Structure to design on (494 residues):
DNA sequence: GTAATAGTGTCTCTTAGACAATATGCC
DNA sequence: GGCATATTGTCTAAGAGACACTATTAC
C-alpha cells in the first residue's frame, strides 16, 4: 500500500516523504511549541507537529516544503529554520514505511499570526515542561519534539540563535531572560553581557531605551552575520565545575 | 516518471529515497574517503559516494540501510556512523525529485576489507586535499562530501570521535597525529594529553608499549562511554587568539 | 525615600597554549 | 653517545562564574 514503485535502477518501492516542523517560541515566561490537532486518520483528534507530504510539483527542495508549512501555520516568512534530523522506519506511521525530514524553527511570539491550516482543525501553542508537552502526540512526534528541545538547549550553549525568539528590538535583560527560560537556570549577568559583547552579535540602537518602573534599558538589535552562525569559544556553563566563593 | 503516488491523504507523488554514506579513514598521513565508480547511468563511469535506494522490505530503518551499505563496501560492522544531513530537491538527480539521507562513518583503515559492491565496478580510497577530492563526482556528491568534511573537522574540535579512525590499540602520539592530519595544523602536545586525560576517553593498556627507534610509547584503548559522546568544555583551538610568548 | 532593574567592576577558577626539561628506547 | 619520540612540568592568557557595587527610572 505504501510501497510506490521507484523509477530507479532496481525499482525498489520507495517510502512516503513528509516534512514536519518543530516551531518554538517563548511567551509568558515559557518555552512553547506549535501543535495542530489532526483532522484525519490515523491519530484523528491527537495533536501533532505541523507538517505534511512533500509536494514535488510545488516545492523546489525540502527546505521550501518546510518553509511553506511554517508560513501556512504562522505567517512568518523570514526566521530561523534548521534541519533537525530525518526519521525513517516501518513503524512510525501505521500506514507503512515513511520518512519524515524534521526541521525546527524559532519565531518571535509577537510576529506570529496563527491561522488554522487547511487540514488542521486547530493550531495552538503548547507549553513545554522539562522535555515534553503534557499531551500524547501522534506518530513519533513526542520523540521528535524531545530531540528538538535537546538540540535547542545544546545550541543555546554555543551559538546565538536565541535572538530569533525575540522581537526586532530587545534589551540585554530580555535576551538573557530567554536563555534562562529555556535552560531552566539563572545565568550570570556580567558573563552573559561580556560574551554577547565580544561575539558582536547585537548592537545598541542609538537613543532607544525601554522604560518601565526602573532604570531604562538600552535597546539592541540583532546584527546579521550574513548567514554565518556565531559560535562562542566556550560553553556558557560547564557542569561539574561550578564553584562558590564561600563554601 | 519519478512521481510514484503516495497512499497518503491527498495522494501527492512522493520522491525516491536514497541513502548515501561518506566513509572516512586516515591512511598514509592522509584523510581519505571511499568512492565507487558508477556502473550505470546517470553519471556512468563517474565516482560517487556509496549508497543506494532504501529497501523497505529489508531495512527496518534508515540507519539500517546506511549500515547495510557500509558493511557491503567495507566489511566493517561496528563503527561510528552518524546521520549528516538530508538533501532533497528536483535538480540533484536528472531522473527527477529525489531525497538522499546522507550519513558519515569513520573506520580504521586496518579493519577495512574493500569489496566491490554488486552495482559498483570499483571501490577505492581517495585522498582529500582541502575540502575535496581531485575528481568530478556524480550528482551533488561533491557538495555532500564537502559538508561531511566540515562536520568532521568541526566535531573533532569538541568531541572524541577521532578514536574511531584508529585501530583498537594506539598511542597518544598516533591519536594526536590523526587530529593533525585532519585539521591540517599542529597541536600542542601537553594540551592534547591533558584534554584527553581529563575527558577520560582512553585508558592505558597495562604493560603494553609500542616500540620503535625511540622511547617506547604507552598503548591505550578507547573507553566506551556507552553511546554517550564525550564533549570537551572548550574548543581545541580558537582562532584569533593565538599568542606567542616572545613576540 | 523605596522598589526594581540596568549596567560595571573585581576577584577566583579552569583550561588552552607556549615552551622547555627530562625520560627511554634503538642504532 | 646520538637520535627520535614519549612524557611531564611551568608559566601565561582567555574567558566563565561569584559577588558586590553603582546608576537610573517610576512610584
Amino acid at each position: 500500500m505504501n510501497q510506490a514503485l521507484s523509477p530507479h535502477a532496481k525499482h525498489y518501492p520507495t517510502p512516503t516523504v513528509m516534512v514536519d516542523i518543530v516551531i518554538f517560541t517563548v511567551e509568558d515566561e515559557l518555552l512553547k511549541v506549535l501543535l495542530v490537532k489532526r483532522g484525519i486518520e490515523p491519530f484523528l483528534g491527537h495533536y501533532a507537529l505541523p507538517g505534511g507530504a512533500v509536494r514535488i510539483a510545488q516545492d523546489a527542495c525540502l527546505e521550501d516544503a518546510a518553509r511553506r508549512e511554517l508560513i501556512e501555520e504562522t505567517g512568518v516568512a523570514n526566521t530561523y529554520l534548521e534541519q533537525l534530523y530525518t526519521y525513517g522506519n516501518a513503524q512510525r506511521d501505521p500506514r507503512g514505511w515513511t520518512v519524515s525530514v524534521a526541521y525546527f524553527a524559532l519565531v518571535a511570539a509577537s510576529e506570529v499570526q496563527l491561522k488554522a491550516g487547511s487540514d488542521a482543525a486547530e493550531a495552538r501553542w503548547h507549553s513545554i515542561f522539562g522535555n515534553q508537552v503534557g499531551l500524547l502526540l501522534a506518530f513519533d512526534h513526542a520523540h521528535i519534539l524531545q530531540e528538538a528541545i535537546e538540540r535547542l538547549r545544546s545550541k543555546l550553549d554555543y551559538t546565538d540563535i536565541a535572538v530569533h525568539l525575540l522581537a526586532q528590538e530587545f534589551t540585554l535583560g530580555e535576551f538573557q531572560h530567554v536563555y534562562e527560560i529555556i535552560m531552566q537556570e539563572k545565568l550570570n549577568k556580567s558573563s552573559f553581557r561580556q560574551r554577547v559583547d565580544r561575539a558582536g552579535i547585537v548592537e545598541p540602537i542609538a537613543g532607544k531605551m525601554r522604560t518601565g518602573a526602573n532604570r531604562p534599558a538600552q535597546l539592541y538589535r540583532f546584527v546579521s552575520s550574513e548567514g554565518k552562525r556565531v559560535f562562542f569559544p566556550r560553553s556558557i556553563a560547564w557542569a561539574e565545575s561550578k564553584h562558590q566563593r564561600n563554601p
Q: What stands out?
A: Residues 4-157 of chain A form a domain with the Nucleoside Triphosphate Pyrophosphohydrolase fold (CATH 3.90.79.10). The helical segments of chain A are 62-74, 141-158, 172-183, 189-199. Residues 171-173, 189-190, 193, 212-218, 234, 238, 241, 243, 245 of chain A lie near DNA strand C (CB under 10 Å from a C1').
